[in-house]
Specification:
By secondary structure, the chain is α/β, with parallel strands linked by helices. It has 5 helices and 8 strands; from the N terminus they run E-H-E-H-E-E-H-E-E-E-H-E-H. Helix 3 packs parallel to helix 4.
């Protein structure tokens, strides 16, 4: 099985804070599969670390009030290009991210409040017909879920 994964989940230091979201249990599940790491924000030209960003009325803004929407959209398109070239069976993305959130994202107030919604790349990938899952859902269901897909 070929699986595209948010690079931060694999331990790549591409998170806004300069760190990562390494999930060792995910690494175990991915063993034996072809893994394609992707970070739409880095692909869009954003630095690491970077000012946190959230989606506000459909546009991505950072906490300093600067629009970073172009970089997020450029990165999402670049990540989608990788997906279209590699044709993964599944895309596993980081929860709540303005790029990769599958089910919910932060509400744009930088208060930590979550709302239903999708990140820019997650939405593009789903619209293009790719099977996209939140990492927490994958880990909750484990290997059996991956094998059923």
């Amino acid at each position: 099985m070929k699986i595209m994964v948010s690079a931060c989940l694999l331990g790549e230091n591409c998170k806004y804070s300069g760190g990562n979201n390494l999930r060792p249990e995910l690494l175990r599940l991915l063993s034996g599969h072809t893994v394609i790491p992707v970070c739409p924000e880095v692909l869009g030209g954003l630095p690491t670390p970077r000012v946190p960003a959230e989606i506000v009325a459909g546009t991505v803004w950072n906490r300093e009030g600067v629009s970073v929407d172009d970089a997020f959209r450029r990165g999402a398109e670049a990540a989608l290009d990788v997906a279209e070239r590699e044709k993964p069976d599944l895309i596993i993305l980081q929860s709540r991210s303005p790029s990769c959130g599958v089910k919910e994202v932060y509400d744009g107030t930088f208060s930590g409040r979550l709302i239903p919604g999708r990140g820019i790349f997650a939405g593009l990938a789903q619209a293009a017909g790719f099977r996209v899952m939140d990492v927490d859902d994958v880990l909750a269901e484990g290997t059996e879920r991956l094998l059923r897909l």
